Amino acid sequence: MTIQKKSGKIFDNHDLAILRVLLNDSRKSLQDIGHEVGLSTTSCWNRIKRMETAGAIQGYTVKVDLAQLGYQDTVIVQVNLESHTDETLYEFGRVLATIPEIVEAYLVSGDYDYYIRIAVQDTKDYERLLREKLYKIPGIRHSKSSFVLRTLKKSDTPLI
Fold it and tell me: How do residues 26-74 score in pLDDT, each as one tens digit?
């Protein structure tokens, strides 16, 4: 399979295989990556650098188990705003970015304006977050919260 980005960049099966290896363990050596995908170390290095330059690889990170850090619960919050002016949307997004417990936020179409994923320690911690941070953001007309009972799938990409 070959994937062509809108920018015209083409990623072939070897590129996708390298990405899968890196997504599973970005600390693997070039030798290990090359062995897994059937390419030389130099070829892997050149492909990785090309994908970094093209923006397909945007960085390297660590996967963290939030429960191990004390964040036992995940809450999905749906939010409607009073206004949809550029200034209101910008300001709402700016404030959301300052709240560490907010791990994802999406401006969406449909019945709500935003879907926000929040990591909290427990229900008391969520109540504190609502009172001290979320409800202090000007312009929220309505919100609806749902606690995640179980995560069935979690992935940042359809490649793995």
Answer: 999 999 999 999 999 999 999 999 999 999 999 998 889 999 999 999 9
Please state the pTM of the whole predicted model: 0.82
Give φ, ψ of 47 to 5 degrees: -65, -40
Q: Which CATH number fits domain 3-54: 3.30.1540.10, 3.40.50.150, 1.10.10.10, 3.40.190.10?
A: 1.10.10.10
**Nearest to 125, CA basis, from 62, 73, 56:** 73
Residue 146 bridge partners (DSSP): 76
Extended beta strands in 6-159, E state = 10-11, 73-81, 102-107, 114-120, 140-147
CA angle 126, 105, 18 (to 5 degrees): 120
Residue 26, amino acid: S
Q: Give the 3-state secondary structure percentages of the chain, helix then strand then coil, rounded to 5.
A: 40, 20, 40
Pairing type for strands 140-147 and 10-11 reads unpaired
Rounded to whole angstroms, the Cα distance separating 160 from 157 reads 7
Q: Token pair of 40, please?
A: 């030389």
